[in-house]
Amino acid sequence: MSEEYRKMKWKKLGRIFNPNILGNRGLQASLMPIVEDIDSNGLVKVYFSPRDHNNCSEVHWFEINLNSPNQIIRISSQPLLVKGKTGAFDDSGITLGSIVQNDSTKRLYYTGWNLTVKVPMNNSIGVAEFDSNGKLFRYDDGPIMTRTLNEPYSCASPFVMFEKGIYRMWYASMDKWDVSNGVPLHYYNIKYAESKDGLKWNRNSTVCIDYSNDHYAFGRPFVLREDGKSKMWYAYRGNHYKIGYAESENGLDWIRQDQKTGIDVSSRGWDSEMIEYPFIHDHKGDRYMFYNGNHYGKTGIGLAKLL
């Protein structure tokens, strides 16, 4: 079989975080994990977004060791970042995008949520910065990317990397709402933007992964450069979310190769209906995938290892 079509093989290591343990805090779910190494011995910090009793999401974290990932070592007692001020773009909650460090500057790019009247939500993209003690602070009350003349609906799920002096972002962009049987359905594709400072972004509505007749929403891209090409994992959905994969020579023109992904829903249990929101983490030559399960992260976070 050619390299182009050789399927990846992921071994599921199980659910590593069950959000039921947050119940005594009035929190639920655990959306969109982001992972950082703490040391070289396998200790990692996993950032995630749980929801409060008003269904508003915020930023928390927990720590595990990749050598024994089913044991939680520490968990945050307070949120790192909460919803924004009343009337702000993120006053109904925030979910994670990606963390980028450039020299001494470490930033979190995230999705801000607004509740609306005729459709369920409006999303924009915000940024916060870590201080030297690991605390997060918003740059301001406004977003760095939101609706525009050429992109008149929502933008969300930013994945940002700093490469050759340029900040590069792949993000979910809503092209339309389609009302079917009285229910509005959101159409998201993945687009691309660039920035010199990571705050002011140039957007040319460049579509990287477009929706199709079978798949109407794409989100939470993860991109890395490897083997002379860009590789992207993402969530896509028809009836339910799955994890897809694509490759590109330049980061702009992508070829979907979902048949290579090598991970799917389980036959039963917490991730038997959907898997989504992948985050790839490499450690000492091993590759791991953190992901969410049923009900958009309501059932927890799982871990898989590439064989």
Short description:
This protein is mainly β. 1% of the residues lie in helices and 54% in strands. Strand 6 and strand 7 form a beta hairpin.
Number of helices: 1
Strand content: over 45%
Rg, rounded, reads 18 Å
Runs with pLDDT <50, length 5+? none
Structure, explained:
The protein is mainly beta. 1% of the residues lie in helices and 54% in strands. It has one helix and 20 strands. It has a four-stranded antiparallel sheet. Strands 2-3-4-5 form a four-stranded antiparallel sheet, with no helix packed on it. The mean pLDDT is 95.
Give the SSE map.
Layout: E1 10-17, E2 28-37, E3 43-51, E4 60-65, E5 74-75, E6 94-102, E7 105-115, E8 121-130, E9 136-138, E10 155-163, E11 166-180, E12 183-195, E13 201-209, E14 217-226, E15 229-237, E16 241-248, E17 254-256, E18 276-283, E19 286-292, H1 294-297, E20 301-306
